[in-house]
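Minutes, project check-in
Item: structure for the 510-residue chain
Input as provided by the requester:
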Amino acid sequence: MEKDQQFERPLTGGGLILAAVLLSMANLIAILDMTIANVSIPNIAGSLGVTPTQGTWVITSYAVAEAITVPLTGWFTARYGSVRVFVIAMLGFGLFSGLAGLATSLEFLVLTRVLQGMAGGPLMPLSQTLLLRIFPKEKAAAATGIWAMTTLVGPVLGPILGGWICDNYTWHWIFLINVPFALVCAYLCWKLLEKYETAIVRNPIDIVGFALLVIWVGALQIMLDEGKNLGWFSSKIIISLAIISFIGFIAFLIWELTETHPIVDIRIFRHRGFTAAVLTISLTFAGFFAANVLTPLWLQSIMGYTATNSGTATAWVGITAFLIAPGVAAMSTKYDPRILVFFGVIWIGAIIGVRAISSTDMDYWSICIPLMLLGLGMPFFFIPSTAVALSSVKEEETNSAAGLMNFMRTLAGAIATSVATSYWEDSVTINRAELVGIIDSDQSFVSQFIDQGVPQDMALGMLEKIVSDQSVMLATNQIMFDIAILLVASAFVIWIVPKPTRAIDPGLSH
C-alpha cells in the first residue's frame, strides 16, 4: 500500500521539471556506467598492470552486482519506502563511484564496482516508478517516454564519454564524475519527493534467500573470470567454485520455492510463456553484450583506434537504435510482439554474422556501417520483448516478473562477457600458434625485406606484427560467427510463447 498516493497531487511547474530531470539523469548514469568502462578496459588494464581479459572484471563485477539488486528492489521499497531507498542508493552510488576512481589495484577497483553496481541496481526501476508517481495520470506516457529516452541514450553516451575521458584525462575520471551529481541528486530528490514516500510493509527479511543468491551468483562469476588464469577444471579452486555455485543454486531454488516471503519470486517461471521469453531475452542480450565488449578491444588492440575513436565507432549502434525506437514502440501496440522480437533477433544475428568476415584493412565506415545496421534491429528486440514476457504472467505478478527478467538479462550479459573474453584470448593464442607454422615457413618473406635493405630484426618484427594482428582478427571473427549462430537459434525460442492477451507498457523492458 502506498502512503496516501491517491490523495497526493502530482508535481507541477518547475518542481516537476526539476524532478523529472533528476530522475531521468539517475537512470542515465546507472545505465551509462554499464558501458562507459567498455572502451576504457585497455587503459585500466595497462594502468593497473593486468591483462585486458582481467580488466573486463570491471564490467562483469558491476553487471553481476546490479543484476542481484534489481529483482530485490520491490522488497527493499516495501520495507523501507521507495523514496528512501532511491536516495540511499544514489548516495551509495556516488560514494562507491568515488572510491572506484581512487583505486590503485584491480582487486580494490572490482570491489568498489561490486558495491557501485549494488547501489545502481535500484536506480533504474525506481526512477521510472517515481516519474510515474509525480506526473499527472494523463501525462504518464510522457513520463515513460522521458525515462525510455535516457535508457536508450545511456549506451550511446557511455563509449563516447568513456573514450574521451581516457584520452584526455585518466580512466579514474569515468567514475569520479558521478560523485557531484549523485550528491546533488540525492539531496534535491529527497526534498522534492519526500511527500511521495510509500508506506512500509514489515515483511520478514529473507536473509537466507539473499545469502544463497549472492553465494551462487558470486561463485559462478569468479569461476568464469578466473577460469582461464587457473587452468579451468585442472584447478582445485575452480572445481570448488563450481561445486559451491551448483549447490548454492539448488539450495536457492528449494528455499525460494518454499519460503513464504521469498526475496525473489521464482514461482513466476511456472508460466511457459514467461520462461521462453526470458530465455530468448537472456540469450540475445548475452550475444549482443559479448559482441559489444569485444568490439572496442579489437579496435584498440590491432586497428590502432584510440579510446575516443573506439567509443564513437561503437556508439553508432545506439544512435540508430535511438532514432527508430519511437516507431518500433508504436508498432509493438499494433502487431504481435513475437513477430517483432523474432525479426529483431534474426536481424541482429545476421548483422553480427556479416561482421564475422571483418579484416584488418577495414576503414572507419566499413566498421561503422554494420554497427549502424545492428542498431536498427535492437529496438525490435528490446521494446516488444517485455510485452511478450510480462503478458504471460498474472497482472499482480508483473512487478516481480519485471525484476526477475532484468536479473536474468543482466546476469546473462555478465556471464557472456567473461566467457567471450576468455574464449577470445584462447583463440588468439591458438591462431597464433597455427599461423607461426604456416606464414613464411621458407623464410621468403623475411629474405625479401632483407634484400631490400631492411635489417633482419626489423623484418622479423614486421612478421611478428602481421602474425599477432591476424591472430586477433581471426579470433574476433570466429567469436562473432559463434554469436551469430547463438542469436539465430534463440530467435526461434520466442515461438514457444503463447500470443500475448494483454498490453504491457514497453518502458518496463528496461
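Outcome recorded: The chain is about 75% helix and 0% strand.
No further action items on this chain.
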